Amino acid sequence: MKRILITVLAVLLFFTACNGTPKPTEHIEETHYTGELIQVTEAHDVGLRGVSVLGPESLTASAAEPSVTFSVTFVGVSPVGAPEGGRVCTVKLIQDGEVLQTIDDYRLTEGSTAEFTVSYEFARYATLETPHLVVELDYEDEYRYTVIPVTLADYPDEYYALTSGDPFPYAMTIITNKNVAIIYGKDEAGEYTCPVKTFICSTGISTPTGGTYKLLQKYDWKLLLHDLWGQYATWVTGSILIHSVPYLSNEKDNLWSWQYNRLGGSVSAGCIRMRVCDCKWIYDYCPCGTPVTFTVLRELPEGITYPSYDELDLDSPYAGWDPTDPDPENPWKPVLPDDSWIAEVPNYEALHEAFTQMTSSEYERFARTSELFVPSEE
């Protein structure tokens, strides 16, 4: 869930009444609003008599920048005939016709300034319509209103993982017979139903075909069977790990190259092999305790397409490197995702450490309830 903090600054300047009578507008019901979103222009009568400046036309709210300023200037709105003590200004946060939060009975007099704070938590992957603010001002026994869309800024899933406060922001489903792993985020009901990422992988003869487990432990490098090594390995259960395509040693330029081109096939002894960029994403943003479900399906879930990848050129002098490894020494020079969001995360290193490692007390708790032995594979 992300925290939306919307600060509404209404600057109201009261002068003499302007000429003409505003078009009548329907009073907004307390619990529902079904009016059309209005594109505001300087000359457009939006129901608030005498509005000359309304800006911005939409508000941007995100976890990285939770506070925004909305300013509206009323010109020619007469206090004559207003209730004793001034006019009543109301701000409502509305989504899907439902009033999520209301601030009202704020009495405004000529030249007064009011500041409103409206806050609400939205699901990161909610499918609801764009929320919007409704600003109302009472006038001659009825309310005039205007509508301002609230844009929910799109920030990275990685940012959400580290800042949402949700200990398990994602869940993983591995479709063993399809060699596909799907990362799901939570919907507005808190259920893992929203696909976030899809990874191609390789499973094997001992890979589970059913059941739900939890990620138990993580390793930068993990020694596997036959003196092979896996990078960014995450222990799932028994001898099953998620890790990179095997390396001949724990050196990044010593990939077992031809095995890379077997991704998408059932070729391991049971572990789940992935490209480095994919198993590192799990290593970085799916903390220990994240649920992992194994299943067998005839078809991929609706809306999920089979992931593709570029095979490795085995004749290249760089064939010892996974071409997706974000290491700056990688001669393939992969296009890296934008990580500028990291600067917006307070205590990033500590948060990231919490996601990639398990505390000793947590490990001991898992050890008491799990069949604990050193996992090895391949």
Which residue ranges are poorly predicted, with pLDDT under 50 across at least 5 consecutive positions?
Answer: 1-56, 63-79, 370-378
Strand order of the largest sheet: 3-9-8-5-6
What's the β-strand tally? 18
Architecture of the largest domain in CATH? Beta Barrel
Distinct helical segment count: 5
Alpha-beta content class = mainly beta
CATH homology superfamily of the largest domain: L,D-transpeptidase catalytic domain-like
What Rg, in angstroms, do the CA atoms define?
A: 28 Å
What sort of overall outline do the alpha carbons produce when their principal axes are compared?
elongated
CATH topology of the largest domain: L,D-transpeptidase catalytic domain-like
Mean pLDDT comes to 74
Order of helices and strands: EEEEEEEEEHEEEEEEEHEHEHH
Q: Tell me the span between the first and last alpha carbons.
A: 39 Å
The proportion of residues forming helix, as a percent range, comes to 10-25%
Q: Sheet bearing the most strands, described?
A: 5 strands, mixed
Estimated share of beta-strand residues: 25-35%
CATH classification class of the largest domain: Mainly Beta
Return the domain count: 2
Brief descriptors of the model:
378 residues, mainly beta, L,D-transpeptidase catalytic domain-like, 2 domains, 5-stranded mixed β-sheet, 5 helices, 18 strands, disordered N terminus
